[in-house]
Specification:
The protein is an alpha/beta fold and 107 residues long. It has a single domain (4-106), classed as Glutaredoxin (3-Layer(aba) Sandwich). Helix content is 36%, strand content 23%. It contains 4 helices and 5 strands. Helix 2 (33-48) links the parallel strand 2 (22-28) and strand 3 (53-58). The relative contact order is 0.24.
Amino acid sequence: MPTIKIESDEQLSAELSKATGKVVLAFQKSDCEPCENDKANLEAVAAGNPDATILTIDVEAHDAIAERYGAEATPTYLVGDAKKCSRRGRGCVEVPWAADLGEALKK
């Protein structure tokens, strides 16, 4: 499954509701060099984990979402069960780099 760019809080809720497996919330911003460097890894994780839902969230455009999930730095990657990942700390764990997401999705 390709990554899905979140454009609103409503879309985020809808995507989490539709997801049936693991979810990655990838908090990024446009002028973040590590975020840009991780894009290829994020796409590879998406391609290698077709049952996972990978949602990208621009923290500058959606600061309320980032704040709700505790994404204070970019990139921030949270992984968890779609039905439990309503807030950070309730079913989501932080993964430091996109290259580590594949292993986190297997747990």
